[in-house]
Amino acid sequence: MELPELPVLVGLSLLLGLLVLVAMAAAARGWRRSGAAWQRGADDQRANGLPLNKAMSTKKQKQQQRMSKDKPQQHTFTHRLLAGALKSHSGNITCLDFSSNGKYLATCADDRTVRIWSTKDFLQREHRSMRANVELDHATLVRFSPDCRAFIIWLANGETLRVFKMAKREDGGYTFTAAPEDFPKKHKAPIVNIGIADTGKFIMTASSDTTVLIWSLKGHVLSSINTNQMNNTYAAISPCSRFVASCGFTPDVKVWEVCFGKKGDFQEVVRAFELKGHSAAVHFFAFSNDSRRMASVSKDGTWKLWDTDVEYKKQQDPYLLRTGRFEEARAMPCRLALSPNAQVLALASGSNVHLYNTRRGEREESFEQVHGECVADLAFDVTGRLLASCGDRAVRLFHNSPGHRAVVEEMQGLLKRASNESTRQRLQQQLIQAQEALKSLGALKK
After folding, report:
1. Which pLDDT score is estimated for 20?
2. What are phi and psi of 236, to 5 degrees?
3. Regarding predicted confidence, which is higher, 433 or 380?
4. pLDDT digits (tens, 9 = 90+) for 60-117
């Protein structure tokens, strides 16, 4: 076997050695440059009278300031009727719900928490809340149980219902415990609303296709309703728990009765009545507290108030009481809330909220740019004195001045027809209270 010639081996060795030396020299120059730069920076910091660690801390603060500038700033809003703002969430709030006893407000946000607020703090400077964490998901909808000992949420990623039980602690707070299992996944389209009947007999979920499901409290589907409305934009349970209603692409609101036997066993869901009168798709609707009134808003640019206290089993149709104009509804989806006594209608489009007197059909108050995003939810408290809205990281609370004016108008009319002195005194006292409330808000009309 022949070996390579000696000069060739020597040449290869010299070449490899030269390459190693060049690499080492380059690395050394880089280290010297970085060291000199660091030393110059340190010298500059000392020349400016700053200790080295303090200067580095200042640099870190500047970085944090730049990062904070990149974060979305909290939207600011002021108005003479603004009663307060609830600001503990770190993400956008998607839903709110008042408990039936009027003591609490539940909110959920994309920060993976549900917060329970005490309503007695609403007019105070500080607003307390209790936090329930949503593990590995976040809630888009939240609803209190009728006994206020639990709440349900709709999971954004899990696409199903989760139940949380509320247990009171000795210090007056609550602990929140999720049920061991979520409800089975049944819907095939995004959810538009959920609800619990005030009787505690059933739960409703509605999706954006044409499906409304009636569930038992244990997570079994009792009935599936096909609304035949092309798509659902909203659905809800009536406060009396007898009815489930839905609206969508068609120009009507369809109402069904959920029937139970004398022993509380589920029987069937039957068509009850419809609200007919709009000429375009219905965006939203709401019930009054006694379920005897309903309000709706449509893409035809109108809102309507209905008398639903009818004998529908005898084919009696609801009566149209009032029609008002709301041109904003032609261009974009709207939300609606009806005060418990049905005297005030709140309509939201974009980030604006408007209050109407349902007796006269007139717009009485307007709140512009209430939130940094579109209004996501809107509701009156159980007393009807406050209106709550959400649409960014805050819940804004408004005094319901049109509600006080409606009471003044009603009492003045009843006083004229009062037949005895005791009735007159009672009505006069209610009139004075409403007038004083308006005066304190600076909303008393001269």
Report:
1. 55
2. -160, 160
3. 380
4. 565 655 554 555 567 788 899 999 999 999 999 999 999 999 999 999 999 999 999 9
Number of domains the chain contains: 2
- Residue 376, pLDDT score: 96
- Give the pLDDT confidence score for residue 50 in this predicted structure: 43
Answer yes or no: are the C-beta atoms of 50 and 61 closer than 8 Å: no
Query: Which single residue is written with the structure tokens 């609830």?
Result: 86
Q: Bigger pLDDT: 72 or 375?
A: 375
Q: Is residue 434 part of a domain?
A: yes
pLDDT 10s digits, 359-370: 999 999 999 999
Same domain, 306 and 413: no
Say which residues have a Cβ less than 8 Å from residue 114's Cβ, sequence separation at least 6.
106, 107, 108, 131, 132, 134, 139, 142, 151, 153, 164, 176
Give the CA count within 13 Å in the CB-facing half-sphere of 83. Answer: 21
- For 8-76, give the secondary structure using H, E and C: HHHHHHHHHHHHHHHHHHHHHHHHHHHHHHHHHHHHHHHHCCCCHHHHHHHHHHHHHHHHHHHCCCCCC
Q: Give the structural domain span for 327.
A: 83-393
- Is residue 3 classed exposed, middle or buried when 0-12, 13-18 and 19+ CB atoms within 10 A define those classes? exposed
With respect to residue 3, please indicate whether it lies within any of the assigned structural domains.
Answer: no
Residue 248 in contact with residue 229, Cβ under 8 Å?
yes
